[in-house]
User: Fold these one by one.
Assistant:
Number 1:
Amino acid sequence: MYDNPNLERKVAQQDTKISARNVQVFYGDTHAIKDVNIEIPSRTVTAFIGPSGCGKSTFLRCLNRMNDTIDICRVEGDIDLDGENIYDKRVDPVQLRAKVGMVFQKPNPFPKSIYDNIAYGPRIHGLAKNKADLDEIVEKALRRGAIWNEVKDRLHAPGTGLSGGQQQRLCIARAVATEPEVLLMDEPCSALDPIATSQVEELIDELRDQYSVVIVTHSMQQAARVSQKTAFFHLGNLVEYGDTGQIFTNPQDSRTESYITGRIG
Amino acid sequence: MTDSQHIVSSYDRDLEGVQALIIKMGGLVETAILDCAKALELRDEELAERVRKGDKAIDALMEQINEETAFVIARRAPAASDLRVVLSVMKMSNNLERIGDYAKNIAKRAGVLLQMTPIDGASGAVRRMAREVELMLKDALDAYIQRDPELAQVVSNRDKEVDQMYNALFREFLTFMMEDPRNITACMHLHFIAKNIERMGDHVTALAEQVIYVSTGKMPEEDRPKADSTPYEIHGDPMAGKD
């Protein structure tokens, strides 16, 4: 039944955005990611699910080299973004992270004004020629973050004064301000109430027109709601990767089945 | 389906509860099939009345199953094999409810047929046909309990035999009616009865297909054998011999 193309919301194009081959991650002696191969399509929401400690966040952080900041962390294998290896020595991690944005579990606005939270990235990457340009970028990002109407009259108030849901949408707006191609989200809704969660999910669905979104979530329902592809991680292995409709109606691996149905595997 | 249990044990109880209702409903429907045919053959008005009244209990079970599945969907958001259980339970209860309606209709016609001269051998043949459908239903429910898609496939294939029995009866009734127009009323009722049983067989087949879906996640291929040839039959063609 999941073969029906009308059931799966249309995936605009299926070219690969990120391709990972034989990825291994070690934290000291701990083998956290074991030989993961995955192709993440462009303009698609891909959900990573799995129990705590299964490596999904670790793998997500590999996609924009956030693990570089951890001394004992070692990454092996190839991860290509648009066919170019992001672990190549010539790649500047800061430039990479402008292309591959990230939103974290807890909203973490800078202790600055709402305006400066958004403007920070475009400024350091020199995306704006003048103040008018920057104003435009900030407005566009806040609109895309679905928070413009709520903050347009107090752009110079501190970002930390917003509610949790607003802060998270501010962080998403901040992440999209640098026009990334990929947006990584590590449990973006776990600190939000259902209404703010719906707003973020609506936003994710809109962002899919332009970006690849990869989201780590502990909520099965959220993965089922927002994603077109789902990857299940378990004990550092990528157990199953497929269309979300298939994973949630007829998973092929018994470990996936046990996890998403809430059984003791 | 995985054999292991949910971490939340009340989830298991919810799912088991609604599946127990299906089995209970199946038991009532099996009895209704056998009893309506028995009432017809033995010209037992009391038994026919019991079948007609018994349909209420079957309908009530369907209502209860509908409510409980809605409850499971709302509270548990079932996925994967659990989702398939909930979906199949909803469809199977519909199939069983329809079969119950057919049995009730047969019991009504049995009450009318009591007042007419019996047609030789017809009610015995109807009863054999009903018994075959009841056995199919029993096996389909067993296949459900045991999550046995192979047995379900066997049941699905057996519907062909019911279709053939119906074809034979269809021709027989036509012959009786052509022989003597006074047989027409009784034969029309008997024909509807046979048709009802043939439709029961189709519902049992649909139910067996749900068993395959719930155990494998896939629906069986559509082209199962069908042997109801009566839509194409021509008997006593008024045009025959006219030229």
Note: Chain B touches chain A at residues 2, 4-8, 11, 77-84, 217-219 (CB under 8 Å).
Number 2:
Amino acid sequence: MHIYADNAATTALSPDVLKAMTPYLTEIYGNPSSLYRTGAVAKDAVEAARENIAKLIGAKSPAEVYFTSGGSESDNWAIKGVCKVLKAQGKNHIITSKFEHHAVLHVCESLAKEGFEVTYLDVYSDGLVRPEDVKAAIRPETALVTIMYANNEIGTIQPIAEIGKICREAGVLFHTDAVQAMGNVPVNVTDDSVDLLSLTAHKFHGPKGCGALYIRRGVRIANLIDGGAQERSRRAGTENVAGIVGLSKALEIAIDTMEERREKLTKMRDRLIDGLLRIERSRLNGSRECRLPGNVNMCFEGIEGESLLLKLDLAGVCASSGSACTSGSLDPSHVLLSLGLPHEIAHGSLRLSFSDSNTEEDIDYLLKVVPEIVDYLRSFSPLWDKIKSEN
Amino acid sequence: MAYSEKVMDHFANPRNVGEIPDASGVGEVGNSKCGDIMRMYIKVEGNVITDCKFKTFGCGAAIATSSMATELIKGKTIDEALKLTNKAVMEALDGLPAVKVHCSVLAEQAIKAALSDYYTRQGIDPTPIVGVIKECDHDHGCGCEL
């Protein structure tokens, strides 16, 4: 048995995407900035991808889509680029949430060292930012609000359109890291009143190392990467042509098949959640309703996440955990702690994330092995003995 | 971060798991906040540790080091067990990733805690013999006392 249940980490490259990319990795190797034919063909492919992506995310113009190396670069560019411009206008305040991806949190921490003040909004026990909290946190000196579309660990989908509306009305720029949401739930930058949006191809069966940043026309942003005149002189570096073509194709497929997949994965997800909740002292982390179709994130008291993952690996299951021990740090995931979970419970977490290639048989198998492994690890856990003796 | 085959073997098939109901000494170290708790049981006959068992809450390395530590002291004299170091546990496991070294320290401390309990039960002050037991060697502001 082999089950890949870590699609929030990365996904398998789709054969159709690979097929679309292959010519640009082989015969059409020209530099899009060159004048001769093979360069011009590559340039056309990049521009066709830009147009396609703009349409797929609801941008008004292809000129609002900029290609990057992925989600982390897009987040860095959006936040640092906007803050650099607005700092000169006396704006030195950023609003974000406690459970953003590190590509956002660490950028905010770095800007804090440069004099920015950062408000970290609570996400409550359900893992959802409250739009009214955003509204209350906005000040005259607020430069940017950055709230993720969906959380990478617990899959909770944020009220982005409501937050966007509040920011637009207040005249404050709004960035969203949509890396996990893109292709899984409907995202439209115009309807959602988003000014900047980060996305990356490898979360929806595209290649690694290629992403995009949507920058609404009129938003002033400083460059992150200076150099040549690529991307209208805003992002230097020879274009990752094959990656860009792959990103466009993968997003197109993901959005075309979204509804069907959403229905299938939601059903599988809910069956798995219901089954795993039958385990004594287990809990689902984050809202069940506002949740990505393929995300299950649970805690099992009395056991530690890494040993659970290793046992699952031995049973043929690739999964992930917010456990401290998987990250090399000693503290459990900031996401689980932001929900108010105590350390000892947050240590025992498991994230299972699914894509189209997962099946009901995978769920059957997980419903068999996860409870067995939890029971086994609890059988020699002194913490479990304590939990049991206290009740 | 990758574990050696030995670590994976002791994780997948831990030796000496369980409790000793009539143990001569029981020691527990670590805490749930840090994500590791080890409890060691020893049975002493004469001057020899005739049996040793463990229960551990923790990561793969915590389980593997507990298992290896019990193997290393079982059948040994108390004096030999007192000399067990975390380095010896690590070497026996063909090494540990740097971030997991603290698990081997915890295993050494768990054995010492069990021996300490054994001496206390004999009415002997364990501190001059066993030394001070460290609760946790983490240094990440988790509130663990060193």
Note: Residues 139-146 of chain B have pLDDT under 50 and may be disordered.
